[in-house]
């Protein structure tokens, strides 16, 4: 399947060796993982999380896609097939349109397909955003320490020291995990010598000096970071992709001016104004952007929209009779087993709320666990994380499709009302389908003739 | 001392929570088994069956993912 002939073998081998060499010289760093989206420092009264910012990026990308597709659409009567990205998009669109048409039927296609396609595109871009190099790895350098409220002490957690890479940008030093003064006292002489060789500031025998905290109003804290070590692939479209698809590093980012309050000395404010070269606190990276689907807020919002608009469709279609799906008292006195219908209706009501939870946690779990998988795999095997990136590619696309498809199915069930069978809708649209659809086998095919 | 007990508790809880992924594995195995049998009986409709199988696998996987989410909450959200 993959063409390994000639020069391509050498290119693949060189990339693999380069990956291993870079992994040994610049070992990867595992980032701090937390479930809620990280708030940008210095936000004050209007906190903004990095997932919300990434959602805005997704909107902008979708807007650009919309403008492009509208511009590239052929005018009526012009049937010249177009190449390029528009072709792919049209293929995807028509395929999904046919698929949803099979499920939903002609009548509600406009309402349901709009929701399906919108949800699909939003979730697809939000899921695939985590695969772009630089997304979870480049960000602010933050001291990983808190001020304990009871005692006023500064409590530090794990982290790394910083170093200066090209053009004055700051990065985490992967060879120097930060050691607290208590741990530094217990290091052996060989360990201290190793740390001196790596130019670490803590963990050597010498005491760690705090760099002078500036008192001027504009203390500039530059932010940049680096993460995994391997090189990025540069393979052509045909050649086999070998080696590391890990994140790029060493990008210069713009400085951020931090205004220091006058008179603030010890405590929380001082902790935020520590310049990045300081070795008295451990440092971690707070990424600029993070895939929006890793935030429960985004997935729960989409789930709420999907379920509420399903109910809206049900009310629009069946009027107030839609409520008989949940509160079904018709057979309570007429048939001996009427009580069962009441119970089933109440269970359906509970099921609607369960759908909100199920939608949001399915997407969150898949994508958040996938991002943790990418972090861990880039940390453990930095020259070979690309199978997991391909897995995340597939999982992101599948979860987007499943979210949209379930929304479409629930919406079409909402229009069916209580007691009608789904086969009636299939008979309707089999005669009016615009696109070639596969014949449903259950209706007319004798099992003996199936072969 | 307190922190190491807390860490131990978190680790044990997260590990126990992932036992629920067993159900996901069994469910996916059953659904794919049924799909492959159906494809063997009816090779003309293999692609329809495959599409529905992928859908069923996504649902079964979701339940295993719920267990994973509980485990992640135990590890990263509880103090």
> Helical amount among residues of chain B, as a percent range?
over 70%
For the residues shown, what is the average pLDDT of chain B? 89
Strand content of chain B: under 5%
Low-confidence residue ranges of chain A: 214-266, 420-434, 441-451
Rg from alpha-carbon coordinates of chain B = 18 Å
Share of helix of chain A, binned:
40-55%
Q: Class by helix and strand content of chain B? A: mainly alpha
* Quantity of strands of chain A, as a count: 8
CATH architecture of chain B: Up-down Bundle
Most residues in contact, chain pair and counts: A-B, 22 and 21 residues
Could you give a short account of the major beta sheet of chain B? none
Q: How large is the share of residues in beta strands of chain A?
A: 5-15%
Shape of chain B: rod-shaped
Task: Summarize the entry for a quick read.
Helices cover 47% and strands 8% of the residues of chain A.
Structural account:
The complex is a heterodimer of chains A (451) and B (79). Chain A is built from 12 helices and 8 strands. In chain A, the strands form 4 sheets. Chain A has a two-stranded antiparallel sheet. Chain A has a two-stranded antiparallel ribbon with strand order 2-3. In chain A, strands 4-5 form a two-stranded antiparallel sheet. Mean pLDDT of chain A is 75; it is low at 214-266, 420-434 and 441-451. Chain A has 451 residues and is mainly alpha-helical. Chain A folds into 2 domains: 7-30 and 138-288, no CATH class; 57-74 and 82-131 and 293-433, no CATH class. Chain B is an all-alpha fold. Chain B has one domain (2-76): F1FO ATP Synthase (Up-down Bundle), CATH 1.20.20. Helices cover 86% and strands 0% of the residues of chain B. Chain B contains 3 helices and no strands. Chain B has helices at 2-17, 21-41, 46-76. Chain B starts with a helix and ends with a helix. The interface between A and B is medium-sized, with 22 and 21 residues.
């Amino acid at each position: 399947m993959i063409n390994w002939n000639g020069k391509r073998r050498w290119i693949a081998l060189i990339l693999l060796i380069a990956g291993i060499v870079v992994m040994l010289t610049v070992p990867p760093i595992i980032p701090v993982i937390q479930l809620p989206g990280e708030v940008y420092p210095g936000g004050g009264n209007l906190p903004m999380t990095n997932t919300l910012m990434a959602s805005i990026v997704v909107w902008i990308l979708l807007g650009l896609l919309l403008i492009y597709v509208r511009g590239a659409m052929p005018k009526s009567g012009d049937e010249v097939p177009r190449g390029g990205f528009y072709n792919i998009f049209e293929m995807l669109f028509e395929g999904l349109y046919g698929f949803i048409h099979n499920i939903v039927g002609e009548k509600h296609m406009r309402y349901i397909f709009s929701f399906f396609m919108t949800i699909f595109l939003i979730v697809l871009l939000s899921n695939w955003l985590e695969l772009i190099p630089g997304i979870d790895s480049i960000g602010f350098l933050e001291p990983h320490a808190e001020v304990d409220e009871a005692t006023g002490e500064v409590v530090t957690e794990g982290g790394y020291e910083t170093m200066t890479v090209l053009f004055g940008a700051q990065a985490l030093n992967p060879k120097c995990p930060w050691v607290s003064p208590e741990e530094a006292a217990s290091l052996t002489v060989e360990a201290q010598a190793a740390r001196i060789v790596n130019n670490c500031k803590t963990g050597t025998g010498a005491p760690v000096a705090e760099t002078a905290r500036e008192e001027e109003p504009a203390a500039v804290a530059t932010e940049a970071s680096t993460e995994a070590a391997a090189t990025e692939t540069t393979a052509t479209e045909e050649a086999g992709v070998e080696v590391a698809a890990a994140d790029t590093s060493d990008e210069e980012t713009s400085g951020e001016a931090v205004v220091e309050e006058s008179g603030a000395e010890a405590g929380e404010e001082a902790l935020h104004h520590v310049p990045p070269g300081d070795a008295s606190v451990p440092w971690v990276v707070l990424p600029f952007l993070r895939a929006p689907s890793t935030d429960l807020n985004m997935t729960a919002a989409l789930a709420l929209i999907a379920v509420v608009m399903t109910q809206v469709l049900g009310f629009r279609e069946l009027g107030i009779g839609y409520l008989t799906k949940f509160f079904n008292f018709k057979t309570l006195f007429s048939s001996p087993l009427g009580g069962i219908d009441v119970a089933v209706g109440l269970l359906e009501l509970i099921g609607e709320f369960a759908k909100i939870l199920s939608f949001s946690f399915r997407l969150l779990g898949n994508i958040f666990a996938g991002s943790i998988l990418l972090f861990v795999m880039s940390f453990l095997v930095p020259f070979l994380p690309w199978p997991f990136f391909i897995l995340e590619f597939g999982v992101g696309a599948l979860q987007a499709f499943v979210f949209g498809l379930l929304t479409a199915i629930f919406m079409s069930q909402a229009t069916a009302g209580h007691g009608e069978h789904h086969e009636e809708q299939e008979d309707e649209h089999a005669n009016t389908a615009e696109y070639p659809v596969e014949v449903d086998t259950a209706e007319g095919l004798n099992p003996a003739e199936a072969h | 001392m307190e922190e190491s007990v807390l860490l131990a508790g978190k680790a044990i809880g997260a590990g126990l929570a992932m036992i629920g992924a067993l159900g996901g594995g069994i469910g996916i195995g059953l659904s794919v088994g049924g799909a492959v049998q159906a494809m063997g009986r009816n090779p003309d409709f293999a692609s329809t069956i495959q599409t529905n199988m992928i859908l069923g696998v996504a649902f079964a996987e979701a339940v295993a993912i719920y267990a994973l989410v509980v485990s992640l909450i135990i590890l990263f959200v509880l103090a």
